[in-house]
Each structure stands twice: as structure tokens, then as C-alpha cells.
Amino acid sequence: MARVVVIGGGLGGTATSARLAKLGHDVTLLERGDRLGGALVPVEQDGFSWDAGPSSTLLPAVLRDLFRKSGRPLERELELVAMDLVREHRFEDGSTLRLPSSRAGQLHAVDELAPGLGERWVEHVASYAEEWEVLRRHYLEVPWDPEAVPRELAALLDRRESLRRRLNRSLRDPRLRLVAAYPFLADGQDPRDVPSWAGVRSYVEQRFGAWTFEGGAEALAAALTARLATRRVDVRTGVRATDVVVRGGRAVAVATSAGEVDADVVVCAVDPRGLPALASYVARTTPALPPVICHVGVEAAAAAAAGLPDEPHDLVVHGDPMLVVRAGGTAPDGARAVSVHGRGRLAEDILLALARQGIDLRPGLLTRVDRSPRDLVAQWGGSPLGVQWQGRRTVRRRLGPRTPVPGVLAAGAHATPGSGLPYVGLSAALVAQVVGPA
Ligand SMILES: Cc1cc2nc3c(=O)[nH]c(=O)nc-3n(C[C@H](O)[C@H](O)[C@H](O)COP(=O)(O)OP(=O)(O)OC[C@H]3O[C@@H](n4cnc5c(N)ncnc54)[C@H](O)[C@@H]3O)c2cc1C
Known about the structure:
By secondary structure, the protein is an alpha/beta fold. Helix content is 34%, strand content 22%. The protein is built from 16 helices and 20 strands. The chain has helices at residues 11-22, 60-69, 103-111, 117-126, 129-140, 151-157, 163-170, 174-186, 201-208, 217-230, 276-279, 300-305, 350-356, 373-380, 394-397, 421-435; strands spanning 3-7, 26-31, 43-45, 48-50, 56-57, 80-82, 85-90, 96-100, 211-213, 234-237, 241-247, 250-256, 259-262, 265-268, 292-299, 314-317, 322-326, 335-343, 365-371, 408-410. The protein is globular, with a radius of gyration of 21 Å. The N and C termini lie close together (4 Å). Residues 7-13, 30-33, 38-39, 53-57, 240-241, 269-270, 274, 290-291, 380-382, 384-385, 412-413, 419-421, 424 line the site of flavin-adenine dinucleotide.
């Protein structure tokens, strides 16, 4: 049995802790905040509660596997709800695309933009099928060694083509290029710096669907917290890790605001740039910053009058700035909880920018919480969006599941295979494979 110390109580750290405890290890989880969940912890004010970050996930099998492998199945703890409609895109030319998750639904919906476009779109998405298989087999489901990459994976990762170039090549209609690039634009990425293969996300979304959590992201945080109690993980909230203590060339402890905690194995599930023992290995990475976020409580009638959908999908208003309206969260009777995320040129109040796009939430405004990217990174102790893509080499510059420091592993959004709930969930499974049973 190894003494494992996990740093960071977001999805990455809690999922790793649950898995390693189930494998028989003695696990201590350190979280600097007073609650577990990281980006899953909601924002609360005046009786409203908003999802602070994620409101849906792809690849539900990742969470199902986590819960099954660490105790009772997910279905007993939390309900995942399939989204019929994953997003509504409003383009600058006034056209709208309501994108369902199924292939047939997407074909039909995209065809309504212009006849023939639906076929083009589903062909583009299907072009990722082989890449998905290669990634799944050699990168997502087995711990990789960046120095010894199987030939077919190397061929994919070393390709020079950027996502932008692939979309330009594959999709003539600029609106479809925006739809395909949207997840990266929302994460603050520049498609010129994102490798072509990362666009596999459109394939994953169409093939496995998008899912919300009954009760919001908070319900996932609560289920994870309960699971750690069941697995007898020693959870220490209010404790900030300051470094990994390395002696004799190996990690032996974690230095914290409350003294050293001895460890045989350390798992870094935070931005490693904040831990001096790891910082030099990730010096060439920069974090992907969160958007400007405004959480608002509005009168339900005003939200309806502004044309806000009643469903949980994102409403994306393309342009500069790009504005995303998310309807997740809970509100007092007669009101709605809505979050607005902004990316790009935002020189004015975000609600005014949204009003200019025909969605005016100001008349029925009951309360609002504004968060700048800087506030958010300070609050989360790092960005839950992980690492900024800087070309094809970035994939090898992230740590994880192994790191160059013996005894230290890496999970979470800053580690392999990247940010977003499904990938962060996979990072925990990869770490558990490397550590193995007690
Ligand atoms: C605005 C926004 C919207 C998003 N929307 C989606 C979405 O719809 N779907 C999706 O799949 N993903 C989404 N994501 C991404 C997803 O939320 C993250 O990738 C994921 O939650 C990251 O989990 P994590 O555990 O790596 O990090 P975090 O959730 O950031 O958790 C890190 C934890 O570590 C703690 N910590 C930090 N430093 C220390 C330290 N030194 N010592 C101890 N504890 C420390 C923090 O307090 C925090 O609790 C979104 C992210 C953002 C920001």
C-alpha cells in the first residue's frame, strides 16, 4: 500500500483519489479551498446558484467508469441527461443553427442553412473516425510515454496541419468552420495553434452525445465528495500545497501551508507551474484563460421576452466579441439563473454587448455577479482550462500521467490528455493505471 498525496480537489484530484483508494492505497487529498469540486463548485448569491464552469460533458462513459470502478455505479448517485439539442449558433449574417447531437439530426439541421451543407458537415465529422481510434487506443486509454510513441500515434501528433487549415480545407461555409472551431474558441484557443487532430471533438460529440447533470455540476461535485468519504480518503480542505519535497532524487512529501505531508506517490492535479519542483518542466506552457463571465438572475418573464431558450443548451452569438449564454443553475420562483461568457473585444458592459445582439436581460435584472479571467484564475488557483495550444508540440509539453520527477504523477486539466470533464476524468484513470493496485 502506497501513501498517496493528491494535490487539488477538482474533478482531476477527486477522481484520482477515489480510484487510488479503491485500489487499496492510503490516499490524502489536499484542497486549498473549503469545498471539493474546483470548477464544479457553483457561484451563489441572493438565492440564485449558477454553474461556475462546466454545465455539460461529452463521453459519459468516462464518469460511468469512474463511479463503477470506485464503488456504486453512477446511476445510483447522479442522473446524466442526454441533450437533444447541444447548441444554438447565431451567426453574424442573421442565420441560426440549432445543432442536435445525432448524426441524422445534424445532417438535417445543417442542411437548413443551405441545401447540401448537411452532407458536407457529416462527412467532415466522419473524417475523424480513424483518428479517434488511434487516439483512444494509444493516448486516451493507456498511459503514454512521449519519448516512445507508437508509429500511428506519432504520425497523427506530428502532423503539421493546424485545425484552422483543416477546417478551411474541409468546410467551405464559414459558419460551419465556426461550429467546428467553437469548443476551442470558447476555451480561448486560436485554431491556428490547435493541431488538426484535436478537432476530433466534433466526432466525439456526434457519436456519444452531450450530457448534463440533474442538479447541475454541483451534483457531480457532491457525488464525488460522497465517494471519497466512502473510500475513506483523508480529505484536507483549507490546505494549500506549496511544493513537492524531493530527496534522494524522489518525491518524499508535499510541503503545504500546514506543514509537510509524507508521501510515497504524489499526484499533481493542479497547474504544475505553481509547484517549484515541477515548474521548470512546464516552463514552455502557458495557461488557457477563462472567459469574462457574468452570472445574472433575471425575471423569468424578461428572460422569455429576451428570447432565451428554456432548455439547457448553450446559445452562441458569433462575432467579436463572441458571447455564450448558458441557462444552467437554480433560481427562486419566477426567476431564471443565466450565465453569459464573453471572448474577444469586450470594451463595454457584457450585458450591453448582449443587448446589442437582441438579447436584453437588463430590464428584468435582479442580481449579477461579474468575474474577470484574472478573478477566476485567482479563485481557482489556476485555470481549469489547462494549457494553451501553441502548435503540435504542446501535446508533448504537458505532463502526465508520468512526470520527470520520480514518484510524481500528473492529472487534471493541465495534464495529459487535456482539459474538459471527459479528458480530466481520463487523466485520473491513466494515473491509476500507472500506480496500479496496492
Ligand atoms: C468557464 C468554463 C466553462 C467550462 N465548461 C465546460 C463544459 O461545459 N464541459 C466540460 O467538459 N468542461 C468545461 N470546462 C472545463 C472543465 O471545467 C475543467 O477542465 C475541469 O473541471 C478541470 O478540473 P481540474 O480538476 O483539472 O481543475 P479545477 O476544477 O480547476 O480544480 C483544481 C482544484 O485544485 C485546487 N488547488 C489549486 N492549487 C492548489 C494548491 N496549490 N494546493 C491545493 N489545492 C489547490 C483548486 O482550489 C481547485 O479546487 C469549463 C471550464 C471553464 C473555466
